[in-house]
Amino acid sequence: MEERHLTCIGCPMGCQITVGMDKGEVISVEGNTCKRGDIYARKEVTNPTRIVTSTVTVTGGKRERVSVKTASDIPKSKIFDIMKEINHATTAAPVKIGDVIITDVCGTGVNIVATSNVSVV
Predict the structure, then answer these.
(1) Which residues of 31-86 form beta strands (DSSP E)?
(2) Cα angle vertex 87, ends 81, 93, to 5°?
(3) Mean pLDDT, residues 75-92 taken together
């Protein structure tokens, strides 16, 4: 049996979790003090995902960049590809919170959205 050791990020407790696995299947989760820990651990060892945050260049705005994030979590394995696409993106002012900056980033079905406002110069 393989064991994986994680620090849970499902709640502020930060429990030290041990996940027992056999042939890629989760067979036990120990150390969590709440149900969120069990859910987090199972997902983290079988299909890890992340929210990506960054900035995108803005043309014609009072600021040169706008903060952005993925609208939902994406596969952890796609982070570097997504960052390449974000780093090459530009958008024009005005930008409002929630505006879609990149649609379906890297074929994930997830949009990159603005998390701040940038007004026109």
Answers:
(1) 49-50, 53-59, 65-70, 74-75
(2) 135
(3) 98
